[in-house]
Amino acid sequence: MNGKIIGIxxxxxxxxxxxxLYYLQVYHFxxxxxxxxxxxxxxxSSGEPEEIIADxxxxxxxxxxxxxxxxxxxxxxxxxxxxxxxELAHGAIPLTAPDWFDCFNATEIGDALQDGSALxxxxxxxxxxxxxxxxxxxxxxxxxxxxxxxDCGQKAYDGTAVGPECPARPTxxx
Length: 174
Fold this sequence. Notes:
By secondary structure, the chain is α+β, with helices and mostly antiparallel strands. The chain has helices at 2-28, 79-85, 106-115, 151-158; strands at 31-32, 40-42, 49-51, 55-61, 70-74, 118-128, 131-138, 142-149.
C-alpha cells in the first residue's frame, strides 16, 4: 500500500513539474511587444539596415533568449524591388513560435521559401553576438521576422573555435 502512495505522489509531482515547464516555455517568457521594432533590410548599396514600409506589425519577444523574437507584418513592396535593393539571406530556417502567436506559421514559411513564393532577406547582421535578424516576404506582401544563429553564433554556442572570420565577442560588463 505504501508503494502505491509513493508512486502516485511521484507521478503527481512529475505532472505538476511538466505542466510548469510547459507553461514557462510557451507562455511565461514571451511577451507581446507593445511598440515593435521597425522592419529593416540590409541595403545592397550601403551594407547598412534600412527601414522598409511595413504595416500592422505584431511581435513577441523574450529576454530569456536572443532567438525568441518573432514578428508578422504586411508590405506593399514587390519582390522585384526588394531583390534589387536588399541583401538576400542564405540558410534561413524559420523557427517555430508558440501556438498562441497564430500569425506566425513556421511550416508555411519554410514551404514558401522552398517553392520560391517567399524570399528571405537579411534584416540585421549580429543584432546580438552570433544572431542575425531574418525577414521573409511572401509575393502577396505578407512578411515575417525572426532571429537565428549565424555561423559564428553556431560555433560559439556549440563550443568549437570561432576563428578569425568572426567578430570579436563582446566583453561582459558588470
